[in-house]
Every structure is written in C-alpha cells, then in structure tokens.
Design a protein that fits this description.
258 residues, alpha/beta, Elongation Factor Tu (Ef-tu), domain 3, Rossmann fold, 2 domains, 5 helices, 12 strands, 34% strand, binds flavin-adenine dinucleotide
C-alpha cells in the first residue's frame, strides 16, 4: 500500500458511486496471527459507523503501488463493530500475489483505501438449515454467515485448513450439526478431493435448506456438482469462485475467467 492514497481515494469514490456503495478510508489498527496460516487485520475508519453489510459481504481493498492500474482484492468482513468503527478481515496466507504481500506487510497506522460492502451471497431467509463448504479463503464468509443463523436453525460447516491446529474460532449460536475441519496435510491448496470426500460424509437435513460454496474455482465447481448430484436444486446452492489455481486474480479482484 502507498502512504499517499489520494489518487486511490478519488478512484474509489468514483467507483463506489457507480456501484452504489461507500468509499472507505481505513487505517490498520492491529494485525494478529489468527492461526499459523491466517492473518487477521483490524481496520478503523469513520465511514464504518454507517456501513451496513449483510453477513458474508466483503470489502474491495485497493493495492496500488503494485501496478500502474489500481489492483483490488476482495476480503470478507469477518467482524464489524460500527460503534467502535472497526472491522476485521481474515486473510489466508497462500500464493504469492499482491493480496498476500499486503496481508503479510500490513503495519500499524498504514492507510488502506477500500470500497464496500460488496457481494451478492448472503443467508437465504427461507431456509431452515445452512451448509457452508469451501477452502480457507471462504472461512471468513462461511463463519460470518454461520454466526448470523438464527438459534432455532441448523448449521453445518465443512472447511479446508492447512493442518490440524489451524481450526478457526467462531461464535455460532444456531444448532451446529457438524463442524468438519478438513486438513490438507501437505496436499497443495486447490485440490478438491479432501473437501469432496468430507462433504460426501455429511448427511443433508430434511426440509428447506441452502448450501453456500466458496474457494478455488475448480474446487467450487466440483463441490457444487456434488451437491446437485445429491438432489439439491440449483437455486439452493450459492457458489462463488474466490481465486484460481496458478492464475492471478484480475485487477478487479475476480478470479481470471480465461
Ligand atoms: C468475494 C470474495 C471474497 C473473498 N474473501 C476472502 C477472505 O475473506 N479471505 C481470504 O483470504 N481471501 C478472500 N478472497 C480471495 C482474495 O480476494 C484473493 O484472491 C487472495 O487473497 C489471493 O490474492 P493474491 O493477490 O495474494 O493472489 P493472486 O495475485 O490472485 O494470485 C497469485 C497466485 O497465488 C495463488 N493463490 C491465490 N489464492 C490462493 C489460496 N487461497 N491458496 C493457494 N494459492 C492461492 C494463485 O493461484 C496464483 O498462482 C475473496 C475473494 C472474493 C472474490
């Protein structure tokens, strides 16, 4: 990140107006190792007092200084404290792109320009059970949504992590039918097999339910297919690619579709 973010701020104000969201001028307050493979970045900013995201929505962070054109990366809002004007992002430490370099180098007082809230996937109000499945880049969205599920509803979580011991803390108050943390144990990220096998062991509850799938592009496609094969209706499975194996995300933060 640059320490003179005036141009990023102006570009973000124009983009935010076009998208109908807010431009956010933020400051790094704290960075912590949530697990050995996940860095939590706490940001402050005046505009956060008026941010009203739905569970699972994200902010788009500008990472200028990396290229002539502003490069953006999207990170899910893990926690927001409007009163204290603080938000937290949890970033999976993998790959070698600008997002990961920013997460590793973020330091106290650093200025961060962002826009938000972004994202179309949030909890389905018609469902009684909610299944969250994906890799560690999806963990913040999965846990933020799962924590927002009402107490009398059911949650199942299937999340891939680097290794045992990297499980993430959560405050799910709904009935937790299963929290499956699936260790890669040396297998490279982006391989669908372990998640696919873990998902196959999960019994889908009766009644109206919804699955939310996120992570690597091909992994997401494979998991979605598995859920449809098990009889879920296409509109009961919300899936989103977050990154693509061997390719940089585009400047707008979306996985390369090429
Ligand atoms: C809507 C949305 C919400 C997201 N929320 C989060 C979030 O809350 N937390 C989070 O960590 N990420 C999240 N992501 C993913 C995030 O935006 C970046 O894709 C990720 O941080 C990698 O960016 P990068 O610039 O480091 O890598 P890039 O420049 O995109 O890629 C560089 C290389 O790293 C590899 N790579 C990228 N990501 C991974 C990975 N997870 N594991 C292994 N290799 C990888 C790529 O295949 C490529 O070879 C989200 C993405 C979207 C679209």
């Amino acid at each position: 990140m640059t320490d003179t973010p005036g141009s990023a701020r102006r570009a973000n104000e124009a983009l935010a107006e076009r998208l109908g969201v807010r431009a956010l001028s933020l400051r790094v307050e704290q960075t912590t190792a949530l697990t050995p493979s996940c860095r939590r970045i706490r940001l402050s900013g005046e505009e956060l007092s008026e941010l009203d995201p739905l569970p699972g929505q994200d902010v788009m962070v500008s990472l200028d200084g990396e290229a002539e054109r502003t490069r953006r990366r999207r990170y899910t809002i893990r926690h927001l404290d409007r009163g204290a004007r603080l938000l937290e992002l949890d970033i999976a430490l993998h790959g070698d792109g600008p997002g990961m370099r920013w997460a590793l180098g973020a330091h106290l007082g650093e200025r961060v320009e962002a826009i938000g809230p972004r994202g179309k996937i949030t909890l389905d109000p018609e469902s009684r059970w909610h299944l969250f499945v994906g890799d560690d880049s999806f963990a913040p969205a999965a846990l933020a949504m799962a924590e927002a599920v009402a107490r009398d509803q059911t949650v199942i979580v299937v999340l891939e992590i680097d290794a045992a011991g990297h499980e993430q803390p959560h405050e799910i108050t709904a009935q937790l039918l299963g929290a499956h943390w699936v260790p890669r144990d040396g297998t490279a990220p982006g391989d669908p097999e372990a998640l696919w096998a873990a998902l196959a062991t999960v019994e889908l509850p009766a009644g109206p339910g919804h699955a939310y799938v996120g992570g690597e592009h091909a992994v997401v496609a494979r998991l979605r297919e598995a859920l449809l094969e098990r009889g879920m209706e296409p509109d009961a499975v919300s899936s989103k690619s977050y990154w693509r194996l061997g390719r940089q995300n585009a400047a707008n933060g979306e996985p390369d579709r090429g």
